[in-house]
Design goal:
The chain has 250 residues and is mainly beta. It contains four helices and 15 strands. A hairpin with a 5-residue loop joins strand 9 and strand 10.
């Protein structure tokens, strides 16, 4: 059994101390994006976070030298509905109603949450975008599929503008937004890069199938500033690929 499959199996059985709460950030120890609790020290904050330092398939990556491949298309069936918007102290997280699906080849995932980073966590040839949204999906097996989409300043995106207007400003605060359609945060085309990686926050579990959209979307610069006023920097630095292949839609 490959290491990645073993880790997934242990996580599902509840036997892996490095995989606690694999879909969400660790609440076991205080962590941040700077100083003694910053990314360079996440692995030292407790056993549950050790893979942040010892893992070999960590995320995010600088996407360079991707290999063109005949990748399966991503099919999106996300639903519009009332969402909970949470300021969790690390980002703004949006919890949609159940029933939104991402399908890729024979893998079916349900959207469980999406959240934002500034600047982007993934880089393209060493360059970052002002923001990146991560759509976190979970399969029945417990595997995670995360779709990343880059934001750049430009025309107003009505979906992001509605969310930005409702951002809770204090840690722990929640808000609701009626009729949110996460599909408004998708680019026109869904060509993508893909690789095997990890959560980009503690516990950094290496159980994520990453899909990063090649085409960014435009959002109003004023709405980007509404996020960066709360979180001016909440991006983990790009990490070594360690001989992993990054595949690209042809």
């Amino acid at each position: 059994m490959e290491r990645r499959d073993l880790v997934k199996g242990l996580a599902l059985l509840g036997l892996c101390p490095l995989c606690a709460k694999p879909g969400f950030a660790s609440e076991n120890a205080h962590w941040s994006y700077e100083g003694k609790a910053g990314p360079a020290h996440w692995g030292d904050l407790g056993r549950a976070n050790a893979v942040c330092s010892t893992g070999s398939q960590q995320s995010p990556l600088d996407i360079v030298s991707a290999i063109k491949s005949d990748l399966p298309a991503i099919s999106i069936d996300w639903k519009q509905g009332n969402c909970e918007i949470v300021n969790n102290g690390h980002t703004i997280q949006v919890n949609p109603p159940a029933g939104s699906i991402l399908n890729r080849a024979d893998k079916i995932y349900e959207l469980v949450q999406f959240h934002f980073h500034a600047p982007s966590e993934h880089l393209i040839n060493g360059k970052a975008f002002p923001m990146e949204v991560h759509f976190v999906h979970k399969a029945k097996s417990g595997a995670l599929g995360v779709l990343g989409v880059f934001f750049k300043p430009g025309a107003t995106n009505t979906g992001f503008a509605a969310l930005a207007a409702a951002f809770p400003t204090k840690k722990g605060e929640k808000a609701s937004s009626n009729g949110v359609d996460p599909r408004e945060l998708l680019p026109k085309t869904l060509k993508y890069w893909t690789y095997e990686g990890s959560l980009t926050t503690p516990p950094c579990s290496e159980i994520v199938d990453w899909m990063v959209a090649m085409e960014p979307i435009e959002v109003a610069e004023a709405d980007i500033k509404k996020f960066t006023a709360l979180y001016p920097m909440n991006a983990r630095p790009a990490l070594a690929a360690n001989r992993r292949f990054i595949l690209a839609s042809s």
